[in-house]
């Protein structure tokens, strides 16, 4: 036991002392912050586009006014959402502001050179106005020519950037609303009623007998599903990370003859156990740091949401299910990767068996997304009984309160498979560490059966 703990300590310290470990440790929280903050920063820093609107011909009369009315309506709606969010508190306002994507457009009067010219002269004036070299006070971001085709509103949109679709999208929506109002008015509907129809946004509330309140569905009822999905993805990443560290560690030590030195002082079982335990401690350290950073960030941003997450994790011992599935999943894959590493001296040697294993690990990644909305879908339920998929899919399904018998039986099946994998990996690790045989399905099978 002492030798096992010494090997585990050596494995842990060897990685914990490296700069790369700490960089990778902070990478996920950093990218999470950047992933959430950069889009908001880009959106808030995006300049307001100066757009000139020209009614091209007498048939287009009134379309410019409709575009201006549509823009004002969008701005009023945006201000109303901001006001409602502010009334609900600072955290709610922050989330609401992040979700707002109103048009960043400012309508300006068209220059006479564009409004009054025609043909090539007008085209030249447009290009000058959209040119980056034009002084800022005379530069435009877009020029819109409103017209009618077969009596229906239409537009030509000139933009300074060929891939700028914001103005086109806004104009398309404004003209669609204008056409709808025209048709309603032509059918005898009063203009005020037509405007009401145009601006109507129904308020729809979701109710469920399984909601926490017994009635209306709130964010409290949706959080468990997100937690389950996050737990499944987190477990997947930790298993892959830990198992890959084991594979590379064993492979490097064998190629440098360090494994032979260790075998002179400890048994193959002690080495395998120590390595698995050391990397498990390393993975646990990563999980604790990530959890601490996430908890601190959530408490700072939204204490109420943090309390809700805590309640969900403690509800019916959900956090203990996550821990059990994490232990079983890590054990299954860690010993397998370590056994493969014992046969390899280069990454190329490991590719023979790593390809099929990685294809197996891709399956739960695809199915977990389905578990978010349909945790009891037949394909999700069937695959969650397969031990190699159980830790990931059952972590995603656990918050949806699956039958207790499913949880118990899948845990039994997973740990039984993990025990079998430990036995198989132990034999393979011992055979691989003591020989120079190249890895293949044939040699791996012989090592397991004791004939290699």
From TrEMBL:
Keywords: Membrane, Transmembrane, Transmembrane helix. One of its GO terms (molecular function) is ABC-type transporter activity. It is a multi-pass membrane protein. The keyword Lipid biosynthesis does not apply. The keyword Transmembrane helix applies. It is found in: Membrane. Residues 21-425 form the ABC-2 type transporter transmembrane domain. Its main location: membrane. One of its GO terms (cellular component) is membrane. InterPro entries: ABC2_TM. It comes from the Bacteria. The chain crosses the membrane at residues 21-42, 226-247, 276-299, 319-341, 353-372, 404-425. This is ABC transporter permease. It comes from Brevundimonas mediterranea.
């Amino acid at each position: 036991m002492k030798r096992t703990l010494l090997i585990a300590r050596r494995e842990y310290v060897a990685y914990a002392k490296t700069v790369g470990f700490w960089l990778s440790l902070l990478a996920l929280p950093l990218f999470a912050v950047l992933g959430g903050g950069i889009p908001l920063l880009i959106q808030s820093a995006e300049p307001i586009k100066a757009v000139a609107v020209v009614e091209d011909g007498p048939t287009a009369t009134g379309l410019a006014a409709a575009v201006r009315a549509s823009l004002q309506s969008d701005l009023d709606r945006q201000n109303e959402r901001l006001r409602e969010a502010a009334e609900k508190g600072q955290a709610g306002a922050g989330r609401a502001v992040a979700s707002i994507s109103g048009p960043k457009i400012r309508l300006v009067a068209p220059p006479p050179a564009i409004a009054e010219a025609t043909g090539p002269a007008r085209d030249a004036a447009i290009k000058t106005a959209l040119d980056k070299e034009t002084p800022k006070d005379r530069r435009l971001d877009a020029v819109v020519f409103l017209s009618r085709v077969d009596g229906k509103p239409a537009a030509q949109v000139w933009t300074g950037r060929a891939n700028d679709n914001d103005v086109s999208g806004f104009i398309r929506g404004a003209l669609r609303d204008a056409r709808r109002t025209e048709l309603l008015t032509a059918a005898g509907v009063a203009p005020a009623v037509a405007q009401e129809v145009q601006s109507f946004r129904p308020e729809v509330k979701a109710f469920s007998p399984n909601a926490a309140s017994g009635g209306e569905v709130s964010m409290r009822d949706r959080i468990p599903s997100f937690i389950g999905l996050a737990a499944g993805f987190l477990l997947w990443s930790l298993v892959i990370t830990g198992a890959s560290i084991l594979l590379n560690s064993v492979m490097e030590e064998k190629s440098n003859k360090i494994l032979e030195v260790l075998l002179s002082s400890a048994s193959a079982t002690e080495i395998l156990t120590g390595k698995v335990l050391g990397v498990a401690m390393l993975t646990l350290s990563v999980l604790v740091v990530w959890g601490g950073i996430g908890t601190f960030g959530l408490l700072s941003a939204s204490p109420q949401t943090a309390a809700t997450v805590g309640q969900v994790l403690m509800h019916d011992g959900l956090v203990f299910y996550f821990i059990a599935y994490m232990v079983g999943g890590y054990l299954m894959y860690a010993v397998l990767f370590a056994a493969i590493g014992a046969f390899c001296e280069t990454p190329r040697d490991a590719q023979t068996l790593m390809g099929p294993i990685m294809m197996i690990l891709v399956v739960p990644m695809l199915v977990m997304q389905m578990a978010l909305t349909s945790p009891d879908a037949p394909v999700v339920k069937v695959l969650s009984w397969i031990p190699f998929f159980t830790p990931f899919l059952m972590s995603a399904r656990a918050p949806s309160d699956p039958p207790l018998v499913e949880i118990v039986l899948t845990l039994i099946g997973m740990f039984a498979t993990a025990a079998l994998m430990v036995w198989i990996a132990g034999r393979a690790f011992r055979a691989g560490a003591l020989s120079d045989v190249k890895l293949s399905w044939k040699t791996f099978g012989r090592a397991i059966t004791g004939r290699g």
